[in-house]
Write a structure and sequence with these properties.
The complex is a heterodimer of chains A (104) and B (154). Chain A is mostly beta strands and 104 residues long. Chain A has one domain: Immunoglobulins (Immunoglobulin-like, Sandwich), CATH 2.60.40.10. Chain A contains no helices and 7 strands. Chain A has a 4-stranded antiparallel sheet with strand order 4-3-6-7, with no helix packed on it. In chain A, a hairpin with a 2-residue loop joins strand 3 and strand 4. Chain A is elongated. Chain A starts with a strand and ends with a strand. The mean pLDDT of chain A is 94. With 154 residues, chain B is of the alpha+beta class. Chain B folds into 2 domains: 34 residues; 108 residues, Immunoglobulin-like. In chain B, strands 1, 3, 5, 6, 8 and 9 form a 6-stranded mixed sheet that branches. In chain B, strands 2-4-7 form a 3-stranded antiparallel sheet, with no helix packed on it. In chain B, a hairpin with a 3-residue loop joins strand 8 and strand 9. The longest helix of chain B has 14 residues. Chain B starts with a helix and ends in a 5-residue tail after the last strand. About 12% of the residues of chain B have low confidence. The chains are: A mainly beta (104), B alpha+beta (154). Chains A and B meet through strand 3, strand 4 and strand 5 of A and strand 4, strand 6 and strand 7 of B.
Chain lengths: 104, 154
Amino acid sequence: MASSIKIRAKLRGDLVEVKALISHPMETGLRKDKKTGELIPAHFIQEVVAKANGKTVMTALWSGGVSKNPYIAFKFKGANKGDEVELSWKDNKGETGSTTAKIK
Amino acid sequence: MTDTTRRTLLKGSIALGTLSAAGLLSPRLLLADWPEAAFTAKEMEKALQDLVGTAQPTASDKIKIKAPDIAENGAVVPITVESDLEEIESISILASGNATPLVASFQLGEGAIGFVSTRIKMGKTADVIAVVKTAEGVYSTSKNVKVTIGGCGG
């Protein structure tokens, strides 16, 4: 699952802009299978944690209301070019994914 | 606080009972700080009360929501929230027309500034509400988004 995240971190002035795309079905648990009429079980990311230089810069808590293959962007101060940003996620089934990117 | 979290967790474990029984979930993997009650609340007031401790945030013009006026596809509605309020602790996004209105809550850590962007599902035309919690209080603003095709399936 190492490739479940595409991430880009860019330094602009003193702000690091992070943009990421995660591959995930994000099933709410409210959707029905069109053929069988049965509910598709919930399967969504609940938590995304972003760290830079060992510090947590952002924790996103999500419901199934975030779109499939989620996009997330945020900005923070206090890091430089070449520093690493680590992004990791956990879903309601206990599956996880993570990746790191160097700030450009 | 610890106690309510524990209650929430226990409830969650029961709801996910089948998964646990199948051995797919060990208690260790359940997230300690995922606010289950707020995320499963069907009314916005209850979700906000559970999440930020008040159902009535103060309206603020220091929060800006960037979202389309008309979303053709409710399954993917791009939302950006920016705020220049000081000492922001969290930015949360709610969609008033969804079965469970609370969509996402971003807890800002060290160095993070008041900016988050994501894409959400909207079941129908409704208000998108951005709620910003700071050290001073809880503030919000909203924007109506018309949805042509609902994105909550079913």
